């Protein structure tokens, strides 16, 4: 119940990204990781429709400076790939959408990154 009450506050934050969200849109929600001190653990939210997830992720940049961060739950390999791409000097920005990693170079070209470097 405490989790749902906290989620209600997060749903209100969803209004900042110009996308309506209500409790009926949420299929499953749970915390991840182990409790550590007074730090709040991340919450994974599974939405009823993929289209809702995509709409929220497309507008997540509008949350800059707000007390919420929207990120995809990526596979371990894609997390490694995204972190690797973020370390490149020639990448201005990198992100993921629907499980695919993208980067934007200083010339403004957006590139789909679809290879994993074998360590």
Gist of the model:
This protein is an alpha+beta fold and 119 residues long. It is 28% helix and 21% strand.
Question: Which sheet architecture does the biggest sheet show?
Answer: 3 strands, antiparallel
Oligomer: single chain
Q: What is the number of independent domains?
A: 2
Order of secondary-structure elements = HEEHHEEE
- Major sheet: arrangement of strands: 3-4-5
Q: What is the CA-CA span between the terminal residues?
A: 44 Å
Low-confidence stretches: none
What class, by secondary structure content?
alpha+beta
Number of strands: 5
The radius of gyration is 16 Å
Q: In which range does the helix fraction lie?
A: 25-40%
Silhouette? globular
> Strand-residue fraction?
15-25%
How many helical elements?
3
Show the helix and strand layout.
Elements: H1 2-14, E1 26-31, E2 43-47, H2 50-58, H3 76-86, E3 93-97, E4 100-104, E5 110-113
Antiparallel strand pairs: 1-2, 3-4, 4-5
Describe the structure.
The chain is an alpha+beta fold and 119 residues long. The protein folds into two domains: 2-63, no CATH class; 76-113, no CATH class. It is built from three helices and five strands; from the N terminus they run H-E-E-H-H-E-E-E. The strands form two sheets. The chain has a three-stranded antiparallel sheet with strand order 3-4-5. Strands 1-2 form a two-stranded antiparallel sheet. Strand 3 (93-97) and strand 4 (100-104) form a beta hairpin. The longest helix has 13 residues, at 2-14. The N and C termini lie far apart (44 Å).
């Amino acid at each position: 119940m405490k989790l749902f009450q906290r989620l209600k506050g997060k749903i209100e934050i969803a209004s900042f990204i110009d996308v309506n969200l209500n409790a009926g849109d949420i299929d499953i929600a749970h915390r991840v990781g182990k409790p550590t001190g007074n730090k709040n653990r991340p919450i994974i939210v599974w939405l009823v429709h993929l289209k809702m997830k995509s709409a929220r992720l497309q507008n997540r940049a509008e949350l800059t400076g707000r007390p919420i961060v929207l990120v995809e739950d990526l596979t371990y390999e894609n997390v490694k790939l995204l972190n690797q791409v973020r370390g490149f000097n020639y990448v201005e920005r990198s992100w993921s959408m629907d499980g695919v990693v993208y980067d934007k170079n200083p010339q403004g070209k957006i590139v789909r990154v679809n290879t994993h470097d074998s360590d």
